[in-house]
Amino acid sequence: MNNKTLPLVACLSLSAFLFSVPVGAANPSVDEALALLKHMQPDRCALQKVRGKILIAHQSHDQSAMDALAPQMDAITARLKPSEEKLRELTTVIKQNPQDQTVYAAAQVEASSCH
Q1: Considering the entire predicted model, what is its pTM?
Q2: Phi first, then psi: what are they for 71, rounded to 5°?
Q3: Per-block average pLDDT, block size 10, for the chain (115 residues)?
Q4: CB distance 69 to 53 below 8 Å
């Protein structure tokens, strides 16, 4: 394999893995965690965007921009906190079953992409 086909093979392998994961989770904790991930995705993406802007402002030594963005980041973080705490509790239960872990891990990969 050359360097150009390696990413394609990796992508196809990941796709095959994700499509082999059962769609419906038997464990109610997994279902709840998947719903939480879906619910949290817009705020997580917004937080990622604000953090990026803060990083750019920091690199540019733009204190006024950082000061303006900090409350936005704090508000998003506050909205996410209850869901993140519940997700931590659910993750403890999910880790007890390998199949549940597989379903949850695939959902995390999907939920981590911001468009």
Answers
A1: 0.70
A2: -65, -35
A3: 50 47 68 95 96 97 97 98 97 94 91 83
A4: yes
